[in-house]
Amino acid sequence: MELQTNYTRDDYSVIVEHGALRRLDLSVYDKAIVIIDDTVLKLHGERLQLLCSQAHIYPVAAGETLKSLSMYDQVINQIIDNGVTRQSVVIAVGGGSVGDFAGFIAATLLRGVDFIQVPTTILAHDSAIGGKVGINACGGKNLIGAFKRPKAVLYDLDFLYTLPYSEKLSGFGEIIKHAMLEGEEALLALHSDFPDRNSLKSLERIEMWLIRGMRQKLNVVQADEYEAGLRKTLNLGHTLGHAVEFHHHIPHGQAVMHGLIYATILSGRQPDFLLSWFDALELPNIKLSPFDDYHQLMIKDKKNSLEYIQFILLKEHVAVEAVSEERLRAAFQILGGYYE
Ligand code: NAD
Ligand code: ZN
């Protein structure tokens, strides 16, 4: 399956298939710099042999510690020391952390070189498209970054089968978000395909949902690349989600699942359906900290003014609303009641 952006220039294709990596064409570049998740390199060495033989390999340990200024400093200087030109390409092979990190390197190296994404997690069906790249600051997630369109996204589904369940679940969090944005019908259909842990573990029927999520994200980012309006809706579940991820050090998409429950409560809806579904999927419980711990982080989130925090709410349509601290606190209390 091949999806295509529809900008006026710098379009890119998103290829989603088993063996997509074989479509990589490096003939136009004088040097390929591959920033790769070392776990993926270990697990899929054979699949990556051809690529490794044509490129300079920089294995990195995935995760939030990768998305730091110190790792950026270390890796970009190694790349510069080893020689790079404007005709070089940076290729990210890994999940969202590697994609965000390598993309930020590509955006800033020599003021920008070409960038190709080879996502290897379910979550990265979301993070590999849309062009947001970046690293974390001490005070919060993704606060240092850029917009950088990839030249291509090669989503090779053969990578996904080695993911541990907790990462499948994390990626599924973003699929749920996309389905919630699409509407009730999509959410129910997703639930019936993946009602519990076993169905998700097998990944049967996942391909259709990955493509559906990517298509939806592409439509939104094409209409509003720089997040003036519509793109903000993709932050559904993320305002509290980022705070939970940062505070509890849990996988991104799992934190978003907690954020989706909170956004549902804040929208004045019953969260019971999501709560029992997430139980069946075995989303690990978290012990909530006091509201202020999350509130501090939410205020720092780049989307907010000081008095109100912008939230994506599920009203008749998906809406962006500035929500007062009082309302946030009240909804958090209700959430706490469910989490006891
Ligand atoms: P990740 O890159 O940290 O990968 C998660 C774990 O899976 C790591 O331990 C990694 O080593 C392992 N892994 C990766 N591929 C594997 C494979 N094929 N088999 C076995 N293990 C594998 O995390 P992620 O969940 O992919 O991405 C999360 C990151 O994405 C967060 O930093 C988040 O902020 C970012 N994100 C960015 C955007 C965006 O638009 N740029 C959107 C959503 C999320
Ligand atoms: Zn996300």
UniProtKB/TrEMBL annotation:
Name the cofactor(s) required for activity, per the record: NAD(+); Co(2+)
- Highest taxon of the lineage: Bacteria
Q: What Pfam families would the database entry show?
A: DHQ_synthase (PF01761), DHQS_C (PF24621)
**Alphabetized UniProt keyword annotations:** Amino-acid biosynthesis, Aromatic amino acid biosynthesis, Cobalt, Lyase, Metal-binding, NAD
Looking at the record, the residues that make up the 3-dehydroquinate synthase C-terminal domain are 171-304
Q: Does the keyword Lyase apply?
A: yes
| Protein name as catalogued | 3-dehydroquinate synthase
Q: Which organism was this protein described from?
A: Macrococcus hajekii
Lineage, top ranks: Bacteria, Bacillati, Bacillota, Bacilli, Bacillales
